[in-house]
Amino acid sequence: MRSRTTVSAGAFGIEALEGRLLLSSPGDVPAAVAAAPLARVTGHVFDDVNGNGVWDAGEEPVANAAVTVPGVFTQDRTQFYEMRTNTNDAGEFELESQVSGLIVVRPGPSTLTVFGNLMDTKQMAIDVADGQTTNVDVPVQRFAMVIGRVQEDRGGGARVDQTGVRVYLDENNNGKQDAGEPEAVTDGDGYRFDHIPPGKYRVGLVETLAPYLRISSQGGGVAVRGKMVEFSDLLITRRSSKVSGLVFRDSNGNGVRDKGEEGLAGVRVHVDSNGDGVKSSDEVVVVTDATGRFSTKAPVGNTSFRFIVPRDYAPLGLSSKDGQRPVYLIRRFNIPFTLDVVKVRVGLKPQ
Q1: What are the tens digits of pLDDT across the range 250-272?
Q2: Could you write out the DSSP letters of every residue in 249-302?
Q3: pTM value surpassing 0.70
Q4: Which ranges of the chain would DSSP assign to H, the alpha helix?
Q5: What is the DSSP letter of 186?
Q6: Burial of 101 by CB count in 10 Å (0-12 exposed, 13-18 middle, 19+ buried)?
Q7: 13-140 in CATH: which number?
Q8: Separation CA 5–CA 106 (nearest Å)
Q9: CATH architecture of 144-238
Q10: How many whole angstroms from its chain centre is CA 36?
Q11: Residues ≥6 apart with Cβ < 8 Å to 180
Q12: Which residues contact 208 (CB under 8 A, 6 or more apart)?
C-alpha cells in the first residue's frame, strides 16, 4: 500500500523545515486549503547504482526517504505550503500539488541514515496539471561511509586516541598508499571517509611513524552501501629499549653515587608503561641484585619507574614490610629508541 498524504480542509499540520512551511497530517492549517482540482504526484525512489538514471533490474527501492513537492495554496491565496511524505518499504510515495516545480528527495530521519539511508539530496523538475497524475521515479545514489580511530595501546587495556594523524584508505588492500587513494586527518571523533564504493578496505598511516612507534593492529573493515560502518581501531604501540639500572644508598642525598655509597639489594622496580600507577598484567616488576643493579625493557618515551622503598629509607620510617602500605619513589626517565643499553640510576637516602 502506498504511503499517501491527501489534501483536504483541516487535514494537515504545519512544521518548519529549512525555512519552509510543510504540511503533514494530522492537524489544522489557519485557512482552508484551496478546493480546486489537484494534481497527484506518484512514483518511487530507487538506488541508482550504475548512475544511468534508469531503474534497472537489481537496483533497490529506497525506504524512508523524505519526498517534497511544490504543494498547495490556502483558499485565500495568502499562504503556500509544500507537501512532504516519506517513502514506504517499496520506495513508493504519493502527494498532491497545484504547481509545477522541483521534486526534492532527501535522506529520512537521522536515525535511519545510520542504518541504510545515506544518500545525497536529489532534485528533479516536474510538470503537473489539475486533476491529472504525474508519475516519476527518482534516482538517488546511496553511498558508504566508514569511521574509525587511531589509538596508542599503552598496555593493560589503556588506549589513548590520537588526533592530527593523517591516514589513507587502502582501496586495493596492497598495504601501501597509491596515487589517488583518499586521505583524512583524525580529530576528537577519529577519521571519516564517505562517498566510497562498498567493499573491504584497510586504513593505513600516511606519514612514516616515528622510529619508536609501530603498528600493532591494522584498522579496517567492510564498507556497506547506504550505511555508516565503524572500522576496527588502528593501534600503535611504543617500541622498547633495554635498560640497565642501579639503585644505591645516597647517604648525603645529593643524587650522585659517591665513593663508598653501595648498591641496594632486593628493591622492587615496577616499569609503569602506561603511567597509571597500577601494576597491569603485561607490565614488568624486577628486583635489584646483590649489587643494586637490575635489567629490564622499557617503552620508548617518557616512562615512569616505581621503586618500592625499603625500610629505613621511606619517610617517617614507613615501609612496605610488616603489612604496611608500600611506599613508592616514582621517577620518570626519557627512554630513547636505541640498540644500545639505556642506563638509569636512582639514589635512596636513609631516613
Answers
A1: 999 898 999 999 999 999 999 99
A2: E-TT-SSS--TT--B-TT-EEEEETT-SSS--TT--EEE--TTSEEEEEEESEE
A3: no
A4: 110-113
A5: -
A6: middle
A7: 2.60.40.10
A8: 17
A9: Sandwich (2.60)
A10: 52
A11: none
A12: none
Residues of the chain with CATH 2.60.40.10: 13-140, 144-238
The predicted model gives 110-133 an average pLDDT of 75
Given a contact cutoff of 8 angstroms between Cβ atoms, the answer to whether 118 and 143 are in contact is yes
List CB contacts of 182: < 8 A, sequence separation 6 or more. Answer: 168, 169, 171, 193, 196
- Please say whether the beta carbons of 343 and 244 come within 8 A: yes
Q: Where in the chain is the domain with CATH 2.60.40.1120?
A: 240-348
How many Å apart are CA 139 and CA 3, to the nearest integer? Answer: 18
Distance CA(277)–CA(268), nearest Å, equals: 15
Residue with cell 635498560: 243
Mean pLDDT of 118-139: 90
Q: How confident is the model at residue 23 (pLDDT cuts 50, 70, 90)?
A: very low
Joined grid coordinates for residue 65: 526517504
On the question of pLDDT at 236 being above 60, the answer is yes
In eight-state DSSP terms, residue 157 is T
230's enclosing H/E stretch is strand 228-230
Q: pLDDT band at 19, cuts 50/70/90?
A: very low
Give the bridge partners for 144, in sequence order.
196
For the cut 50, the answer to whether the pLDDT of residue 132 exceeds it is yes
The DSSP output letter for 110 is H
Between the alpha carbon of residue 301 and those of residues 210, 274, 284, 297, the distances in Å are 11, 11, 17, 12
Q: Where are the alpha helices (DSSP H) in 49-186?
A: 110-113
Identify the CA nearest to 141 among candidates 226, 43, 229: 226
CA 15 – CA 22 distance, rounded (Å): 6
The yes/no answer on whether domain 240-348 falls in CATH 2.60.40.1120 is yes
In sequence order, the 6+-apart residues with CB closer than 8 A to the CB of 156 are 273, 274, 276, 278, 280, 281, 282, 283
pLDDT band with cut points at 50, 70 and 90 for residue 13? very low
